[in-house]
Write a structure and sequence with these properties.
The chain is built from 24 helices and 14 strands. The chain is an alpha/beta fold and 682 residues long.
């Protein structure tokens, strides 16, 4: 683990494949599941025959800094224990819903999509003022499960509301983004297709029952029944061997019987195995920016929030009600919605003249510009043939609308560029494109003619087969680079053009690596910050976390302290923490635009940057959902070049037109041949 050790360098006392294997173990850039991403077949109801219990309340590590196990770990454990179905109910968001569904399908497990929603409502005179939030509201949890496609859309909309999508005040948006909560009354408008469970110990109804406020609990339950219907509401029982579980559950059963609704047992699972409870404690301490000792009140009361077998859970809840376990199976049968199916996502329809088709409109645009750009008869003939072939492939794969949307976005980028460059002295005078295409798309004459590329594929003899061909089974990959100032404004214009409910940036998740895991876990364990920093600096970029104890033992700076229990605990925690998502972030430039409201397919929320909106899925989940990700990439070198044009004009009184640069310049070619290419991008 020590930096600079010669025996840790590739090629010296270590085979290259060993080095690569060590690097792969240490670096986990994404919490993405290893589940196959090919199409999956739906699972039939017969899989639930003979099953005594289905877990309907479960958190993965996408309950950020709370859940302590990955979707894969939970799915694999569930299969080993004999589970036939499993519900995901992460806190407030659906960050890992697609990953969980794909992983479950790959193992033959039926996935159920849900979430544990935080809701707020006005406090009563009996509520403790210490339990109220800053707005004087009382907060509680509800467990929601998607029974139908419409129910899933309502789940997405409720999650979006909780994260502040409906707010216009920036301060309110930021408060919801960092501490999501939805108004309790929003449930009335988004109840169709959902099954609601009354929640964990922090649910309003269980907490009222626990406090002996039975009449208020009955009124709260009656309100849910009025909004959702008696068949959609179940009183949730949880028994994790916590003091007070048994009397509360017995009181909840009596409440359900008086109200005429069912009861169901759940496990409130936060990790796949009991031994993972220590990591869950550390995550909670990190979330509250405190140590384990200081966060005792926020942590789980014991180590019993792990995934148990169906038989064990059925036996556990039989003491309360004979149907408590069986109802979990009935609910699982009813939740027929499959997230891996068609969500109904469609690209926006491009603007077309009356009677025109997308293919006809695309051909019209291309042919108008082909005549302008190809004057030579020989080049024009080649261009005509290339265009005809590409249009044939585009028709074969039904991609005309895809290209027209890119064309519409690029026209918007040209509008943005005119506004942004108006402030520049020189770059606004030359006919610079707003951005540059790169990669295989520059070989396409269609991309060239509609403005996505500034490279003439006919003149340069480029091969289009990598970009478009008959065998392709995915959408063409088009990367567009923009100067940073144009990209920043373009993203806001896209939100304004299509609306925040129809356009959103793709998410990414910052995950723990060894150094960050050492620092955060060590602080939670109460270890000295200076020594943690020294240890973290010893962690090389490709080193795994397993050698921490070895480093501590061999480093005289740590002395006898290396044998202390807290340092041994750190050595145990860090490997478990590496790869766990820490917080939500945004993709460098990927956006999704939808014809129908995107928030019916995936929750969206305000981003940390003003006037930007973010969906809850990363690029892999977006791909699994068969959504189109459009990349608006900010390239700093383009910004530098455009700034240089302005500086040259200001300092030398000369306007440089980049479109007229000689690509055959021998001096430049010789410099490249000499390898003098520092600062050159691609």
């Amino acid at each position: 683990m020590a930096r600079g050790r010669r025996d840790q360098q590739p090629g010296f006392m270590e085979r290259w494949n060993e080095f690569e294997a060590r690097q792969a173990r240490a670096i986990k850039d994404t919490p993405r599941s290893s589940a196959p991403r090919d199409p999956v077949a739906p699972l039939c109801d017969d899989a639930l025959d003979g099953v005594p219990y289905v877990e309907l309340h479960l958190h993965t590590h996408y309950s950020l800094l709370d859940g302590a196990s990955s979707p894969d770990e939970l799915v694999h454990t569930a299969v080993e224990q004999g589970h036939a179905a499993l519900a995901l109910t992460d806190h407030d968001g659906l960050f890992g819903a697609m990953e969980f569904a794909r992983a479950a399908h790959a193992e033959g497990l039926r996935p159920i999509t849900g979430l544990e929603l935080t809701v707020s409502e006005p406090a009563t005179g009996h509520d403790d003022p210490a339990d109220l939030d800053e707005d004087g509201q009382v907060r509680s949890h509800l467990t929601l499960l998607a029974e139908t496609r419409e129910g899933y859309a309502n789940l997405c909309r409720l999650s979006s509301l909780a994260f502040g999508l409906g707010e216009t005040d920036r301060r309110v948006q930021e408060a919801h983004r960092t501490d999501p909560v939805a108004p309790f009354t929003a449930l009335e408008c988004h109840s169709t297709g959902l099954i609601v469970l009354t929640g964990c110990r922090e649910g309003r109804i269980p907490s009222l029952v626990q406090a002996g406020r039975g009449a208020e609990a009955a009124a709260a339950l009656a309100r849910l029944v009025g909004w959702f219907g008696a068949e959609q509401v179940f009183v949730e029982l949880q028994d994790n061997d916590v003091h007070g579980d048994r009397p509360r559950n017995e009181a909840l059963v009596r409440l359900a019987e008086r109200a005429g609704v069912g009861v169901v047992g759940t496990g409130n699972v936060h990790y796949h195995a009991r031994e993972r409870h220590r990591l869950q404690d550390v995550l909670v301490a990190i979330r509250h920016r405190s140590t384990l000792d200081e966060s005792h009140g926020e942590r789980r009361p014991n180590a019993e929030f792990w995934l148990r077998s169906p038989a064990e859970q059925a036996e556990r809840f039989a003491r309360y009600h004979p149907e408590a376990a069986a109802n979990s199976v009935r609910i699982a049968r009813r939740c027929a919605f499959d997230l891996t199916g068609d969500l109904g996502y469609r690209l926006p329809s491009p603007p077309l003249s009356e009677g025109a088709t997308p293919l006809g409109e695309l051909e019209r645009i291309c042919r108008e510009r082909l005549g302008e750009r190809y004057r030579s008869p020989s080049e024009r003939a080649k261009a005509e043939a290339q265009l005809a072939e590409e249009l044939r492939l585009i028709e074969l794969h039904d991609l005309a609308g895809f290209f027209l949307i890119y064309h519409e976005v690029f026209e918007l980028a040209e509008e943005v560029a005119r506004d942004v460059r108006a402030a520049g002295i020189a770059r606004g005078l030359t006919d610079l494109p707003p951005g540059r295409g790169r990669g295989s798309s520059v070989s396409s004459i269609v991309c060239y003619l509609i403005g996505l590329s500034h490279i003439d594929p006919i003149h340069h003899g480029l091969f289009v087969g990598r970009f478009l061909n008959e065998e392709m089974d995915s959408l063409p990959d088009i990367d567009l680079d923009f100067p940073r100032d144009i990209r920043a404004e373009l993203i806001e214009r896209v939100h304004a053009r299509w609306g925040r409910e129809h356009a959103a940036l793709v998410a990414s998740f910052a995950t723990y690596r060894t150094r960050g895991a050492i620092r955060d876990a060590g602080k939670a364990l109460g270890l000295p910050v200076a020594e943690l920093d020294r240890l973290a600096r010893r962690a090389g970029p490709f080193e795994g976390p397993e050698q921490i104890l070895e480093v501590l033992a061999n480093d005289p700076q740590f002395g006898e302290g290396a044998g202390m229990r807290s340092w041994r605990e750190l050595a145990e925690m860090v490997p478990q923490l590496v790869g766990v998502p820490r917080h939500l972030s945004q993709h460098p430039g990927g956006m999704v635009i939808a014809s129908e409201p995107l928030i019916d397919c995936v929750p969206c929320q305000p981003a940390a940057m003003p006037n930007r909106y973010l969906c809850h899925w990363d690029k892999d989940s977006i791909g699994d959902a068969r959504m189109v990700k459009i990349d608006f990439l900010g390239l700093g070198m383009l910004s530098v070049v455009e700034e240089a044009v302005d500086l040259i004009a200001a300092g030398r009184g000369r306007v440089v037109d980049l479109s007229r640069i000689d690509f055959e310049d021998k001096a430049v070619f010789d410099t490249i041949c000499q390898g003098d290419t520092v600062g050159v991008f691609q």
